[in-house]
User: Fold this.
Amino acid sequence: MANEIKMPKFGETMTEGTINRWYKNENEEVEAGETIFEISTDKANLEVEAPASGILAKILIKEGEKAAIGEVVAVLMDPGEKLNDFGEKSAEIKASGSKEDKPDNIEALQYDTCILGGGPAGYVAAIKAAQLNQKVALIEEEDLGGTCLNRGCIPTKTYLRHSEFINDLKKADEFGIELEGYKINWAKMKNRKDRVVNRLVGGIDSLLKKNRVDVYKDYGELTADKKIKLLADKKVLSAESIIIATGSKPIIPPIDGIDHPDVITSREALDLNELPDTLVIIGGGVIGVELATIYASLNIEVIIVEIMDQILPRLDQELVKILHQNLLDQGVKIMTESEVGKIDSIDSAEKSLKVEVKTDSKNEIIAAEKVLVAAGREANLRGLENIDLKLKKGCLKVDSYLQTNISSVYAAGDVIGEPWLAHVASAEGIVAAKNTANLERRMDYSAVPACIYTIPELATVGLNEEQARQKGYQVKVGKFPFSANGKALASGYQEGMVKIVSDDKWNQVLGVQIIGPHATELIAEAVLAVRMEVTSEILAETIHAHPSLSEAIMESAYDACGRALHL
Assistant:
């Protein structure tokens, strides 16, 4: 049954309203109570909800047009009803909400900026561009938030909080709390992860609506004439500027048997319905060690296979040794200078895979239920094949303004390469958005924090000791262990240390490395110090709260200046 949606009356003096925005397109499904359009009056902007569920059959008052109180602005119909009124020819309203698939029925829409990809770079760029008074479209084929929110940062950190909680339970007796044991309920853990992710995805959706960003849940293809063709919606989006934020995807190494159904990536690993009893992880980088921490805490036998001579090969060796030992203590087996040569199926009630691991001295066969590929990531260039974009090491090449080789086409996030970090992607998205508005901003990578959410946590910024020496600095190093920090001792987490690398000539802080409790929070102070080119003296003489974990940074700075006070 058709429902007429009329201009509502908000207040005694209101006589008409202007349609600012439709949140739904014609032929789309609408739920009762769902926000369907926004109006403005002489006093306020107001959102209007759908009076019933159905198909938005016809929009009569377009964006920017006015309607009197009580005037019909749209028609809502049930699936299968025919539209005969309002001067339209009879037409079948499809429940799917899609238009007829005709080659000549391609709708062209004009924007100031179109953004391809809704991850940390894309959705942040969309919000910033909209805040700069641009008309913005965001195209995302899957869920808003991209890999980070749905299949990376947020799910792993949710599960890692579970791991921390389990670790606390194991230490309960140390605090005088006697427990008789605990039971792992993986289904509840997974449900909690899903709730966290869904809430954040919903939050992003609300932010985009609030900032009047048009979101197209579709696969977008960039054409040679700098337009975006939508596959499902049969629309073409044109814009003055385009930001490519298509992200990255897991690297799948050329290993015989890698296509076995029980060989998974981080995407599947975070959404398993049942836990394996044995898990081989190919790669000892950030993804590998974080997932190893999660699954080891769930009493799963975990083996990391890393081709380099240490896990986390780019990080400070002194800190990595501490983490390496902690992973061993948590039950993780680590095989460095090793690589997986082959994966075979086996007939066993418990195990489904036979993994051949090659080392310098021998080949070892490991029986496992699952193999997780965590060998790094590569740029996702899907949808960019029809435009002549230049690449660098397999990623889009951009200048310091994040512009590609094609004028007014920018790129941000993982698609432009390292560092593969969500917070860097968001910063790049903001810079790219500002440049679409001709604000001429350069991207600054001088102080980028890198965080690893293991037990204990590890975080760094700037140069480590080896990197500083390679760049020709005369290096001074200050260190302070958390075992000498009052707050760390009180909390029962005294492993690790803070390490400050400074220039001997000027005492400028070149880099800070932290392994220990809440390292990923403590690093923010260090990021500011590196970015502002602070000296060790200034950092040491800055008053820090007592007792606090941050005092370890102050003490490390004192050590770089000569000697720590409490060591």
Notes: The longest helix spans residues 186-210. The longest strand covers residues 107-116. The chain has four domains: 3-83, 109-249+379-436, 263-375, 450-561.
